[in-house]
Write a structure and sequence with these properties.
By secondary structure, the protein is an alpha+beta fold. The chain has a domain at 47-137. It contains one helix and eight strands, in the order αββββββββ. Strands 1, 2, 3, 4, 5, 6, 7 and 8 form an eight-stranded antiparallel β-sheet that branches. The longest helix is centred in the first third of the chain and has 24 residues, at 2-25.
Length: 138
């Protein structure tokens, strides 16, 4: 009985330890700026940008590429505007979808200036089917 308990405890510990190690491999950390660059832009300004949006419907593998307006607030894409009144966005919506993601990842040049920003947004509909939008702002 005691050896079974120890095996379960050891297995649980290893599972938690290994899963945390695996997760940390894929965590994105923004590198620190060079010491000479004391005043740098941390995020792009809150505004509406023109972005390249790559769409993938995970239910039927349909994909497409669009150039659309995207709204950025506090380093996060909060809205993709499809035109003619259509959009996906954070917050309350009449369609019942869940908006997930949108945090921007920045590509920087040697002077630590932002060259581009990218993000992934996943939309889960009422049936929990997902659609993914990869956005690139240059």
């Amino acid at each position: 009985m005691r050896s079974t308990y120890l095996k379960i405890l050891l297995s649980s510990f290893l599972l938690v330890f290994l899963s945390n190690s695996a997760y940390s491999q894929y965590t994105v950390y923004e590198p620190l700026p060079p010491v000479s660059k004391t005043n740098y832009v941390r995020h792009i300004a809150d505004d509406i940008y023109i972005g390249t949006v790559f769409y993938l419907n995970l239910g039927n593998t349909y994909n497409a590429k669009y150039t659309l307006k995207v709204t950025v607030i506090s380093g996060r894409i909060v809205k993709i505007d499809f035109g003619k009144g259509g959009s996906i966005h954070t917050g309350y919506n009449n369609e019942g979808y869940i908006y997930s993601g949108g945090d921007l990842i920045y590509k920087r040049d040697d002077d630590y200036d932002i060259v581009s920003a990218s993000s992934t947004i996943t939309i889960f509909d009422k049936n929990m089917k997902s659609k993914r939008y990869a956005v690139l702002i240059q």
